[in-house]
Write a structure and sequence with these properties.
Layout: E1 2-7, E2 14-21, H1 25-30, E3 36-39, E4 47-50, E5 55-58, E6 68-71, E7 76-79, H2 81-102, H3 105-113, H4 118-135
Antiparallel strand pairs: 1-2, 1-3, 4-5, 6-7
Helix pairs in contact: 2-4, 3-4
Length: 138
C-alpha cells in the first residue's frame, strides 16, 4: 500500500488529506482540484514542497497569535506556558465566582422578606467583595 499527499503547486503547502491505496489509478481520482499528488504521507502543519526542487522540506507556518511559541520538538505552535497558566487562573476564578454567586440566594431572599435585615446585607456585601477580588484574575 502506498500513501500520497496533496500539495498546492503555487505554495507547496499540503492539504491534511492523505490517500492510502494499492491502485495508482485512484490517485488522480482523489487529487483535490488545483492540487498535485506526491508519494508519501507528509505533515501538512510542518512540511511543504519546495517548488524549486519538488522535495519535501520542513516548514514553520505563520504564528497564530503573539500568545503562541514554536515548539521545535512537536513542530507545532503552542500556547505559551504563561498564557496557559493565566487561563487556568481565570477558569478557577470563574468557578469560584459561580460558587459564590450561588450562595447569594439565601441573603437575597432574607432581604426580600425584610429589607432592613443588616446581617443579610452584610453577607451579600462580603460575597460581593470576594467576587470583586476574583474578577481581577480575569
Amino acid at each position: 500500500m502506498r500513501r500520497y499527499s496533496f500539495y498546492h503547486p503555487d505554495t507547496g503547502l499540503f492539504t491534511a488529506k492523505i490517500l492510502a491505496t494499492t491502485n495508482p489509478a485512484l490517485v488522480a481520482l482523489n487529487t483535490p482540484e488545483g492540487y498535485r499528488a506526491i508519494a508519501g504521507a507528509y505533515d501538512h502543519l510542518s512540511q511543504r514542497v519546495d517548488l524549486g526542487t519538488l522535495k519535501v522540506i520542513d516548514y514553520q507556518p505563520p504564528r497564530p497569535s503573539p500568545q503562541h511559541e514554536w515548539n521545535p520538538k512537536s513542530r507545532r505552535w503552542e500556547l505559551a506556558a504563561a498564557v496557559i497558566a493565566q487561563r487556568q487562573l481565570a477558569a478557577q476564578a470563574l468557578s469560584e465566582i459561580a460558587r459564590l454567586e450561588a450562595t447569594q440566594a439565601r441573603p437575597m431572599r432574607e432581604l426580600a422578606l425584610d429589607p432592613a435585615n443588616v446581617a443579610a446585607h452584610a453577607r451579600l456585601a462580603a460575597i460581593d467583595a470576594q467576587i470583586v477580588e476574583l474578577r481581577k484574575r480575569l
